[in-house]
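#help-structures
NK: newbie question, is this the right format to request a structure? protein is Aconitate hydratase
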Amino acid sequence: MIEHKVRVRRSADDFPQSEHLAQKIAEVAVDPVEVPADTAEMIINRIIDNAAVSAASAMRRPVTTARAQALAHPASPGATVFGVSGRVSPEWAAWANGVAVRELDFHDTFLAAEYSHPGDNIPALVAVAQHKGCSGKDLIRGLATAYEIQIDLVRGISLHKHKIDHVAHLGPSVAAGIGTMLGLDIETIYQAVGQALHLTTATRQSRKGLISSWKAFAPAHAGKIGIEAVDRAMRGEGAPAPIYEGEDGVIAWLLDGPDAEYTVPLPGPGEPKRAILDSYTKEHSAEYQSQAPIDLARRLRTRIPNLDDIESIVLHTSNHTHVVIGTGSNDPQKFDPGASRETLDHSVMYIFAVALQDGTWHHEASYAPERANRPDTIELWRKISTVEDPEWTRRYHSEDPNEKAFGARAVITMKNGDVIIDELAVADAHPLGARPFGREQYTAKFAALAEGIVDADEQRRFLAVAANLANLSGDELAGLNVSVLPNVLDKAPILPEGIF
């Protein structure tokens, strides 16, 4: 990997385009290096993972809204919308499918200086691939780039520190990945990356306080913007430049300011794109930093005969977990039984309480209003707090994959004074966890979430198509869509009319 130093430059400085971070990203995108077999295998796993969570979210209102908007934009050849027949303009397919993927907070993640869900790249690239007749091999190459760029930006540049939403790293990765997939030249990709970044910077209020359905729409919007940016760049239109380093650019005014310097690692020429292998999926439908606490709670409940005897629970964890989903956020909504699903998803106190009581976690039942309003749950929930532990923060940011951790140490004080302590560094499904996810686990997750939503024969058909991705022709990429049973879609919410 080449470590690129990125800092603000005055307009009067001699700063050639060859030194711009957007140019370095474009150079990675055009590198003809072959995709390693394990990278290609994991790309297929993540396509299956996305389909699984899309099936589970197919009837939810935000997904229904996005689907209705997309179906109002038919196109030929177009791209498919998850669950239904017909084709729509690719940016709208990316929009609908991106919301379906993101709605339940149940797909892959990478955490470092910034947060990310790199599987958000998949809907945009699949849509463009279907519309442009790309091969499965082209799609694999594009997704290897998209994952690489987003994850490498996440390693080097913190956005949340300045309350900028993490999808600002997604716009450039989508643009770069599409550039690889379509075989575009460096200049076109450079301009598309700049446009995509410029248009996908937004505040983190979408993930603060009372969290709304926009949390699911935000990455879909970034994917849609990324597609549109590439389209304009292909037609010869330019971008603000230098977008990262400019005197009035992103770093100077949205991030650490004119004196900042970031280090962004990117593959050198001929170096394989393997970043996807450093990311990890979710076994539970909850914010990633609560994955290990859920597994820890399930393990701890066998050591506590009566949960009513608990006096307090303190979760010692990283700064990220403490301030984003813990009591360090200072969000009273995280203790509100009437809060939205999206808010409860970002409350490790609620999540730990329910997992401790139930010994399991379910993407619907664990968030149901009647579940959140159970008196014994509310009582336990309000006994839980988080504190930052510098060692957990250090491990969160560690570059050593063998010690990088997203877990917590639970200190449970009983009413009789006894103290029960246990900790878990990584979730069971993590590559270093008790039950790492491989193809078998991704397939099982798909089967479980698609049960009763996708016909068994359709499930088998989709899995066979996905497994054969490297050999698919452009016409065959439509097979990556999954048909949802009509009687299931009939249960989707009835929406008021919009503009389209």
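mod (FA): yep, format's fine, and the tokens are attached above. The longest strand covers residues 310-317.
NK: thank you!
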